[in-house]
Amino acid sequence: MTKVRHVLGISGGKDSTALAIYLRDHYPELELEYYFCDTGKELAETYQLIADLEAYLGKPIVRLNAAPGSVEDPFDHFLTMYGGYLPSPGTRWCTRKLKLEPFEAWIGDDPVVSYVAIRGDEHREAYISRKPNIQSIFPFRKNMWSEDVVARVLRNDIIEKVAALYQATAHKDKWLQIGEVVNRPISPRWDRVAKLNALLDVDTPLFNRVVFEFLQETDYTLSHVRDFPLLPNQDNLIKSDIFRLLEDSGVGLPKYYNECEFELDGKKGTYHRTRSGCYFCFFQQKIEWVWLYEQHPELFEKAMEYEKDGFSWYQEERLEDLIKPDRLQQVKQEHLARLSRRSQVRSNLLLEILEDDDEEVGCAACFI
């Protein structure tokens, strides 16, 4: 059989760190390779976390450098190439050049299973490589398969083929329980998500086995292996599980998660950084820029220097304006109001979704 590589990208955030710990503890038979795309602009707390995780794993985390041989940090190297044009949500050249491309160069044409740390309480797909030799797996979700795999398995025109796989794999009693769901075609009233959830609810490991057998006749990476240890997995880990896993392991949370207290007009609040990645990440909230200004003033000063070429991290506001006394106070007041709303309406799921501040919202996500 073709040798398959199993890889996990470490962003320096809580979820990818937790996934590395989870896979090491639950699936030690996996020959995992760990890597970290170093932009050269990470917080010191991120580099410390990488070192702590290496000690726990007992294996090195490969540092991928997007600009080997350059006298500049990877970010500065490409910033020069782009004429000082700063990245933005609409032009994320930093993610492509500093993370995706060095990863793809590192794996080359090897068949790869890439493990991605999207939790069970997140409703999104990752920013993943589209190279055909890479297959993404999501161990924290009840459905560990990527959207393209699910869409292929649940097509109406191959229901008979999938039903045959179920019959060959399931016990008779289980087939009697699930056969109607398997044979029911997707329709406007019963879409692919509904069918997927129905199959997972009946028997997740069975669904995983059927998908795996289906993939044996495809060009997906898992067609190169005879078995896959995660097939029995039916875990569905959410944010609270991640925090507990990190604390129990002894690795702990990245230090930038530590709450810092501030006082404004007699009211006390806390702030912290919510994501890994470059200290000047344009995805961070305004209060996180304030956190950087007050906790790492030397880094904030460097972030401001990047705006001297006529570009800014925000189209509507420059950093030098953000830290003016009146504006700084306004940002903190808005943050206090937000904290108050959260404490008063914790049962409102919509509010929590809209105001979720996870690291993975930005380019620091495990995107492959």
Could you walk me through the main structural features you see in this protein, from its secondary elements to its overall organization?
With 368 residues, the chain is of the alpha/beta class. It has three domains: 5-145 and 225-249, Rossmann fold; 146-224, no CATH class; 255-361, no CATH class. Helices cover 44% and strands 9% of the residues. It contains 15 helices and seven strands. The chain has helices spanning 14-26, 44-57, 74-81, 93-107, 147-153, 159-169, 172-183, 192-202, 204-215, 239-249, 286-295, 297-305, 319-322, 325-344, 349-354; strands spanning 5-9, 32-37, 61-64, 112-115, 134-137, 260-264, 267-271. The chain has a five-stranded parallel sheet. It has a two-stranded antiparallel sheet with strand order 6-7. Strand 2 (32-37), helix 2 (44-57) and strand 3 (61-64) form a beta-alpha-beta unit. Helix 6 runs antiparallel to helix 7. It is globular, with a radius of gyration of 23 Å. The relative contact order is 0.15. Mean pLDDT is 91; it is low at 347-362 and 364-368.
